[in-house]
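Re: [ENG-882] Designed sequences occasionally contain unexpected residues at chain ends

Forwarding the minimal case from QA. Structure tokens:
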């Protein structure tokens, strides 16, 4: 399995797992990472313990399509992709260029990408940050048959505070393009479609207090990730930037893809699985 070069998984004796920077990363880079909220740790109650889940190399007739966040590349999703591949899923990463293309153009490209690339009967979408806005905007068109479920990781499902703050900044406007401006617009969000298939939201709360006065993941607020119609919602103690690299994030994603719920199955005395709620 290929892990992000700046991260590794570690579990201490108390049962906490975390995604932490490697010790040889330069100090200034660590500062940037900390600012963006990627130095994360999981609470004990957020760690899945699902007796039903077993790793398998059997190929599934299902494809996981991954959409990275603003300014990111496929490398940001490689750990999550590898974990789904190991679980037997086909995986694809949808590439896009928000600097050159408008949000509507990118959404159209996603539809065509699915038509050309997906070879399985069913497919699912997992987006990080802006990737989820692209997924929602694409519902203005018709997705190809076979769309199953959607998992949103740290989605700005309401106008983003940081986008509002920087929307007039020339560098921000150039780099983020039309999509970056849309993230700040109330009118855009009022008309943004809600997915027509089961979707779950995973939010993070390893944030910062310099620009936020409420729980956040250093980029979006916890409350702004919620969306009416979601099948389930889960809060993990991770930051925005690398939430997708943490093992429990993958396990919850897989659980939702399989059962449309983040809730774990506990085996009762008769040996049958029952869903139980995760603490929030």
């Amino acid at each position: 399995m290929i892990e992000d070069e700046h991260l590794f998984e570690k579990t201490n004796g108390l049962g906490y797992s975390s995604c932490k920077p490697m010790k040889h990363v330069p100090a200034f880079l660590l500062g940037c990472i900390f600012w963006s909220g990627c130095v994360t740790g999981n609470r004990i109650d957020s760690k899945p313990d699902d007796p039903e889940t077993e790793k398998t190399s059997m190929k599934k007739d299902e494809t996981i399509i991954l959409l990275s966040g603003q300014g990111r590349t496929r490398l940001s999703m490689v750990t999550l992709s590898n974990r789904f591949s190991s679980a037997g899923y086909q995986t694809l990463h949808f590439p896009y260029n928000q600097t050159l293309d408008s949000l509507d153009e990118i959404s159209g490209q996603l539809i065509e990408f699915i038509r050309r690339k997906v070879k399985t009967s069913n497919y699912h979408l997992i987006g990080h940050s802006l990737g989820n806005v692209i997924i929602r905007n694409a519902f203005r068109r018709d997705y190809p048959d076979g769309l199953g479920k959607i998992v949103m990781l740290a989605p700005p499902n309401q106008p983003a505070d940081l986008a509002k703050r920087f929307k007039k900044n020339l560098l921000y406007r150039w780099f983020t393009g039309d999509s970056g401006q849309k993230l700040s617009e109330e009118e855009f969000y009022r008309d943004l479609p809600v997915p027509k298939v089961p979707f779950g939201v995973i939010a993070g709360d390893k944030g910062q207090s310099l620009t936020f006065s409420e729980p956040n993941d250093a980029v979006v607020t916890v409350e702004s990730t919620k969306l009416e119609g979601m099948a389930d919602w889960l809060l993990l103690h991770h930051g925005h930037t690398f939430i997708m690299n943490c093992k429990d994030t993958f396990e919850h994603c897989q659980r939702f893809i399989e059962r449309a719920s983040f809730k774990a199955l506990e085996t009762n005395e008769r040996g049958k699985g029952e869903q139980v709620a995760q603490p929030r």
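QA comment: On inspection the terminal residues look reasonable. Residues 224 and 267 are 35 Å apart (CA to CA). Proposing we downgrade this to a documentation issue.
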